[in-house]
Design goal:
heterodimer, A: mainly alpha, ABC transporter involved in vitamin B12 uptake, BtuC, two-stranded antiparallel ribbon, 11 helices, B: alpha/beta, 6-stranded mixed sheet, 4-stranded antiparallel sheet, 24 helices, 12 strands
Chain lengths: 296, 613
């Protein structure tokens, strides 16, 4: 039972990161029907920012955290400006490969500018400390991740619900053409969606980087894939679904790791991907269905 | 006709494949003659890469489904080949505990390759069935994710199952094992090019392309995309497996990274830069990217110095080149350099100018050969719910195969929804519909189309990249397989009757609006249906064109012996063409009768004009 609770908190902690990424992906998908495989760059670039800061002034996380978030927002907006703006309305095939193109270029830039090898920076000292609550010990990093994730999600929900900008995004996610006809400015909405997605990814990046403490050219790929998977599990385009998908994926990973026998533990990632393939085979539309009837 | 088919499907593409092969190999040999083993190796690798890229083209090009998993297939083939072909004395060191006694096996190159293909093919079948289950279609994200997951599963297993794969270190052939001459590479390359080029012209290939262009329209024409897509997948897997075995052998080793992200990027860029929908384009992409890659490598090699730019000239430059090429092509020219152009196309055009039998078409009207079908189309008590909204509320209609029945009503009355119900696109909450004796409620669109209902769409859904003639021949193909109990209309004559014969080789997307409408009708007629279901055939047409459409619809329906159910807003059109009319309002049938009766009906006047009493 103790173990179960520990794993549950561990899973929520991981899942929170995925949920933040998935929510951003779902926002972007909503406004331009793009599955953004370059969304992981909002982790890769901040990773190098964190590395740069710790190189220059040492691992001061009071400095790193805001820098990482700002970098993530800038990266997200920049990718829209440089690449996605020009393929708006193209086929899904074209947009998907465009985002892969962005990913590959960013990887190559860091290979050239820094190194193909991973660069380490100092993790905050406290993160693997544990607190004991009623006989169960929790890692602080998980508790902080869960707390901040929830706060961020609440903030995002209130932005989407209350502000004009949020309403415009939600309207655009529902029906982009109709929203445009109602006077929603497409450029601004898309840019805002990328900015908000970048912010969410920035928060996710903070916790991801606290755990890994390294910057490498492909740093964003694995969290990105998890985010994409979570978003699709949640039924692409559904914002609630994306968040639930993220937490579900985090929990599934943790319990799978615990459940697989020791000599197969190395295959956890492989098993996760296998499960994901099966999931998409059985339920390609995800678990929160978004009605997206094709007009004929 | 038969002869034309033979030339068009076999001889010309065959000659084209030979030309493409010649250009690739010739170019390679020319470069290699510059001397040096490095150039020789590069050319060998280019030819092997070409085999894998062609494997990708067969699937991605014909189906439009973006796959990242093909390098997963390649990795499986590569490991199978390596485990079987590496001499036991080398395996003793790397994988002494390999399961199934693999450590002691040594097969020749050819048998190892055959088994590698068989194993990969089995995996391909499983993945293919999964893709189908997921409803794969052009651009489908779930399908792409399944293939991506496959790539990662294979990679993770390869890294973390050292007993079989020796983990990250991988498997190595002994020294002196690389191919001494390229004969086998040439043979395999040519066969790969030829099979890809021929597949494009096969009926199966054509059906896959139709579904790629418009999945829903293809289904509504009776195409079940499942089998063509599966066929494309399996053929591509075979080519990939052979290519991967070849590459493993040429490189002399196999590690998890060999067929992972980096190589996926390389082959995908090669495919899209030249043009993924054509074999010539795919091969051109291999040449262009190999050359570009080599050039960037030369620049980054340290022998070149450009003042101010030296920070750029270092390792990683070729990755920037590849990623940048993918990005730029997607933004500026997503269809690639050549699009779906093939090297034998000009030859075909040349041949058409010659007076071959079947080359010139007499402008005869479509013969009224088919007998009228006695069956009735009837829908009874159909109710459709969209959320809480009753789009259709217990509507019943009936039509005989020797009449033209109209469906009119204000916007939102449920006309198109009714058409969508009887073509299987919308599943009704209640009610049933049948054609003759056969109940079709709940059947899939392609089953319904094969049973004899062919439709057009309000917003025109042609197969844009296919030629005018191919658009019609897709429907004719399905008719030949599934409607052979009827007299089948000759697709060429339908084109003549529609006034499209002169434009038969143009792409459907190049047609003007009126011609596109006419083509959609001809395509539906080519399916040899018992009923033509027309959704606003005059929408967007001028007065004169609308008037011409009346005669055209009548003539077509009479020629193929089909009944017609037509929706239109043009009252003149409807009242002129129809024998009977149903009037729908708010999901209910409010009137039915001859045009004159309906026009006189007070309920209709209320619905249309809002006039009360």
């Amino acid at each position: 039972m103790t173990e179960f609770v520990q794993q549950f908190v561990d899973g929520l902690g991981r899942g929170g990161i995925y949920a933040l990424l998935a929510l951003g992906l779902a926002l972007i998908f909503g406004v331009m029907h793009l599955v953004n495989f370059a969304h992981g760059e909002t982790i890769t670039v901040p990773a190098y920012v964190a590395f740069g800061i710790s190189l220059a002034v040492g691992g001061n996380w009071w400095l790193i955290v805001p820098a990482v978030i700002v970098a993530a927002v800038l990266v997200s907006v920049a990718t829209e400006f440089v690449a996605f703006r020009w393929v708006r309305g193209s086929s899904d095939f074209t947009m998907l490969l465009t985002s892969f193109g962005v990913h590959f270029v960013v990887v190559a830039v860091f290979v050239m500018a820094v190194s193909p090898k991973a660069k380490n920076f100092e993790k905050p000292g406290w993160i693997f400390n544990t607190v004991r609550v009623g006989g169960v010990s929790f890692e602080i990093v998980d508790l902080v991740t869960i707390g901040v994730t929830l706060a961020t999600l609440v903030l995002t929900v209130s932005i989407l619900r209350k502000t004009l900008f949020g309403i415009a995004i939600r309207a655009a996610a529902e029906d982009f053409d109709a929203a445009r006809l109602m006077g929603v400015r497409s450029n601004r909405v898309i840019r805002s969606a990328f900015a908000l997605a970048g912010f969410l990814a920035g928060v996710a990046a903070v916790f991801w980087l606290m755990r890994t403490g390294e910057a490498e050219p492909g740093a964003g790929l694995v969290p990105l894939l998890k985010g994409v998977i979570a978003a699709i599990i949640g039924g692409l385009g559904s914002l609630t679904g994306a968040v639930l998908g993220g937490f579900a994926l985090g929990l599934a990973e943790v319990y799978l790791r615990a459940w697989l026998p020791g000599n197969l533990a190395g295959l956890t990632e492989g098993a996760v991907f296998l499960l994901i393939a099966l999931l998409f085979i059985v339920r390609p539309q995800g678990f929160v269905t978004v009605r997206r009837a094709e007009r004929v | 006709m038969v002869r034309g088919n033979l030339v068009g499907r076999l001889l010309l593409p065959g000659a084209g494949s030979l030309a493409v092969f010649g250009l690739l190999v010739g170019g390679g040999l020319l470069y290699a003659s510059g001397g040096g083993t490095a150039r020789d190796t590069l050319v060998t690798q280019m030819l092997v890469n070409a085999v894998l890229v062609i494997g990708l083209q067969i699937f991605i090009g014909n189906t439009g489904i973006l796959s990242f998993g093909h390098m997963g297939f390649a990795a499986v083939a590569g490991y199978t080949f390596a485990l079987l072909a590496i001499a036991p004395r080398f395996k003793e060191r790397s994988v002494p505990d390999a399961p199934f006694g693999l450590a002691d096996v040594q097969l020749g190159i050819a048998p190892a390759m055959v088994i590698a293909v068989a194993v990969t093919l089995a995996l391909g079948l499983i993945v293919g069935l999964g893709l189908i289950r997921s409803g794969a279609k052009s651009g489908a994200i779930a399908a792409t994710m399944i293939t991506l997951a496959l790539l990662f599963v294979v990679y993770e297993v390869a890294r973390n199952y050292p007993d079989l794969t020796n983990g990250r270190v991988g498997l190595t052939f002994g020294p002196g094992n690389s191919l001494s001459d390229r004969t086998w590479i040439y043979v395999i390359l040519f066969v790969a090019i030829l099979s890809a080029r021929l597949f494009r012209e096969t009926e199966t290939g054509r059906l896959a392309q139709a579904a790629r262009e418009d999945d829903l329209a293809a289904r509504a024409m009776g195409v079940n995309p499942t089998y063509p897509q599966l066929a494309a997948l399996l053929l591509s897997v075979v080519v990939i497996a052979v290519g991967a075995s070849l590459r493993t052998h040429v490189l002399g080793s196999m590690t998890p990274e060999f067929f992972f992200f980096g190589y996926t990027l390389l082959t995908l860029v090669m495919l899209i830069v030249g043009g993924r929908n054509g074999v010539t384009g795919a091969v051109l992409g291999v040449i262009v990217i190999t050359a570009g890659n080599e050039f960037t490598r030369y620049l980054a090699g340290g022998d070149v110095s450009v003042p101010g730019l030296n920070w750029l000239l270092q390792e990683g430059l070729s990755d920037i080149f590849l990623g940048g090429a993918m990005l730029l092509f997607m933004i500026l020219r997503p269809e690639g350099l050549l699009g779906d152009w093939e090297i034998d196309f000009p030859l075909r055009r040349l041949l058409r100018r010659l007076p071959l039998p079947g080359g010139a078409k007499r402008a005869s009207p479509v013969p009224a050969a088919a007998r009228p079908d006695p069956s009735r189309l009837s829908a009874s008590e159909v109710t459709v719910l969209f959320g809480g909204f009753r789009a259709l509320d217990g509507s019943s209609i009936e039509a005989r195969a020797d009449e033209i029945v109209g469906l009119i009503g204000p916007n939102g009355a449920g006309k198109t929804t009714l058409l969508n119900v009887v073509t299987g696109i919308v599943i009704p909450a209640e009610g049933r519909f049948s054609l003759g004796e056969r109940v079709l409620t709940g059947e899939q669109p392609h089953v319904i189309a094969r049973a004899g209902l062919a439709r057009t769409f309000q917003n025109l859904r042609l197969f844009p990249a296919l030629s005018v003639r191919e658009n019609v021949s897709v429907a004719a193909l399905v008719a030949a397989r599934h409607r052979s109990d009827r007299v089948l209309p000759d697709p060429d004559e339908l084109l003549v009757a529609a006034g499209l014969w002169e434009q038969r080789d143009r792409r459907a997307r190049e047609l003007d609006y009126g011609a596109a409408r006419a083509l959609e009708l001809a395509r539906a007629a080519a399916a040899a249906p018992a009923f033509l279901l027309l959704d606003e055939p005059t929408s967007g047409l001028g007065e004169a064109e609308s008037a011409a459409m009346i005669d055209h619809v009548r003539a077509t329906a009479a020629a193929i012996g089909a009944g017609v159910l037509v929706i239109d807003h043009d009252l003149h059109f409807i009242t002129t063409i129809c024998d009977r009319i149903y009037v729908l309002d708010q999901g209910r049938v409010i009137a039915e009768g001859t045009p004159a009766e309906v026009q006189a009906d007070p309920a209709v006047q209320v619905a249309y004009l809002g006039a009360s009493g």
